[in-house]
Amino acid sequence: MSLRRPLWAAAALALAAALCTSPAQAAETFPFRDPSLPLNQRIGDLLGRLTLDEKVSLLHQYQPAIDRLGIRMFKTGTEALHGVAWSTDYDANGAVVTASGTVFPQAVGLASTWDPDLIKRVGSAVGDEARGYNAENPTVWGLNLWAPVVNLLRDPRWGRNEEGYSEDPTLTGAISTAYGSGIQGDDPDHLKAAPTLKHYLANNNEIRRDTTSSNLPPRVKHEYDEAAFKPAISADAATGVMAAYNLVNGRPSTVNPDLNDVVRTWTSRDLLNVSDAGGPNNLTGSEQYHTTQAEADAATLKAGLDSFTVDDNRGGPTVTAVKAALSQGLLQESDVDTAVRHILSIRFRLGEFDPDGGPYAAITKDVVNSPANRKLARETAAKAAVLLKNSGNTLPLAPGKKVAVIGPLSDVLYTDWYSGRLPYKVTPLAGIKERAASVTSSEGVDRIALKDVATGRYITAGTGDAGADLKAGVTTAGDTEKFDVFDWGQGVVTLRSVANGRYVSRANWSTLVNNQEQPTGWFVQEQFKLEKQGDGSYLIRYAGYETAYDWFGPNTYVKAAADGTLSLTTAAEASRFAKEVVGSGVDDAVAKAKDADVAVVVVGSMPFINGREDHDRTDMNLAEGQEALVKAVRQANPNTVVVLENSYPTTITWEQANVPAILWTTHAGAETGNALADVLYGDVNPAGRLTQTWYRSAADLPDILDYDIVQRDRTYLYFKGDPLYPFGHGLSYTAFRYQGLRVTPKGDGYEIGVKVTNTGSRAGDEVVQLYTHQRQSRVKQPVKQLRAFQRVSLAPGGSTTVTFTLPKADLALWDATRNRFAVETATHDVMVGPSSGDIRQRTTVDVRGEKIPDRDLSTTTRAIDFDGYSGVDLVDETKARGDAVAGSRGDWIVFEDVDLKRKPVRVTAGVASIGGGSFELRLGSPTGRLVATVPVAATGDVRTWGTATASLSGASGVKDLYLVFTGDLRIKDLALTR
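^ thats the sequence. predicted structure below, dont judge the formating
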């Protein structure tokens, strides 16, 4: 979900109060309140008692109370990616209402455990805490949770990488199923809370995210993107999906018919599908897909969305639009009934209409941040940590060592956009202090003072938590004139005031104030750049994210007025400042490192700055200043350990080559410091594994908007280069031996077993990963593909036989020639090991399936079911459903192995073109033998379809058939006939 600055908050609060008034209990006991009746009967009874107006009112995110039936207000949307985070409600100051409960590791960290049993326990704790908050205030804390995010981490530059699980659909499916199952609870008829999968479909870029289209050829769509969503829905571990902002093949996800046609076929349960914030309004706004909101809302309902997340808590516009759609015949009352039935189904399963509130109604606020949940958070954070490198047994650390804990993240914990507040904080420094014999510390950041060159006056900050407006005030530099500079890369820094430990911000949208605990908010107004000029002075540039919206134009530079007041102006009018380094962070860190037995350098990201919702990363490097710090410390003390704390792959090529030990963790919540210490000192033997490929450079990646992982060799599935760290990588303090891999046919599949032995002197966990590779195929196959995994614990010298069941159906590929999955007859490599790059045992199995027949184009074939392409776009056939291919001169698609033995003589195609054009059919290559030129008459609109025909000559045998565009047009289908 997206949330923008709550300018509406005051009005929203007043309306929320009206909506949330507790309804009077109806005097009559209706059948829908009888839990002994079948669920469908109860839903039908309630649905039949609602008026049309009442039913329409339930379509909005804020479903108002219906007093006459004793039904209270219900709201969708409590964020809970790694703990209960926030609700779509606002306090009196316009701030989002945020939870202060257990914060678990970010989602990518949860998946890094490769431990579904553990993640189910985490999900259960989150479900408990959601219930606890709901028990305290059900009008703010709804039980429809918007989590987990199952979008695949196809591109590590995605701003929301921290929210997802993996680049692999099998791992993503397992972790999302576990998390969702835990949230829901184990009662077969009731839900503890209702998890909603985000964001359907192929949502993995923030740049122009509501107007860009993800081009998904059928294989990519079915084998990859859908495969991430299907497991949790099929296992009844989720209660619906949230539609994404982006378009898929030219159609906004808000009106993707697959929400009904595909997603609902994965389960027999009713699903409550919701829009992302503002999604339905984008249809008439940024996307310009529908002319009126009535048309847009009708299309949204018909596509399979049930709940409109728009206009905050003001349901009026949605009600008006839906009623208009009904009056215009765009919707029938039965369409509304269908959506309301889906909504009520989830509300019933949550126990709302049971007299006792259902089996989870007894959960109270006492569960929030309970000792058990804090213990679970620590366990999870430790199990999520990934040991990337450990040469010379640098780790674990011996307890008696003197340790220098260094770095900008050494004594701080940060939260992210989808995190709750931390009720307490154990920083890395605090955790290590509990273990080490002696500890020194340094943040390794420069302390500076900024002096207006023209006046000699220093920028002065306020004291106390509220700080004060910064101004150029005095001519000597005390603590109120000093700032610690944190480097986050690409020139962006934050300035922490020494006067009060708060960050400088434009939080009041006017002057600069030192009042923020951490960089935060939608626009992140704590970002600055210190731009050195030719004369050695500096310009101070405000670099908050709202500058991306060009709200301030060129007025982003700081100017000091005659009275010292600071304001923003152009670079030409800005004041020039001297940057006086009061204390060198590198010098301090080096001194501490030289005086220690070991240096632990904690570097990484600030989650509100280094990529986040609405902002993709443009590189994958560690911040320049942080890398310089690591290099200096490593030179000062060869016994250096780097702890990298961030939310995504990072190109730490120098560190991998030169630093003895590297440990990665995501931002892992209040217990981060304890968990890191547990791992660094060996109380926990690390067994976390990477869920993404870590590339050596962003140059290894294609454009972030290119979604065809097959053609572009994306992710570990198809990448043929040499990664920095492969998918599944992670080291241990012990060693494991793999023996005796066997594959045995069993039922309609295979049983695969391998013996794993801990050959080291420490107990530890091993993540045993099963991969396959299909050697022969009609289509391009993955280099290797994860099929299953198990995290097992073994004592020193202990052994276990890890057994996997691999259904033959899991080896199926999407056959675009017949629009279905098919298992080909082929030899498959079967491989096991601790990572995709460390295969310890392999064998083969001959799979008996089928041979995909040669293409038959004698019947009408969709153009999108091609085998290859160049240059084309995938587009919508109509606004309601269907896919087509759009191209311009020189673009082409190819159908391989086409059966032309009957020597067709005519081609017929479904075409659309505003101005007309043509296409050619050629054999063997885009410039091969010409067998047809097909003129296309203008149809006047890209979604107005006509028929184009032409004679075909010289086509025979079995050939690759290229359709080459020679004009701007769209093609939806074609047939070759006698």
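The mean pLDDT is 95.
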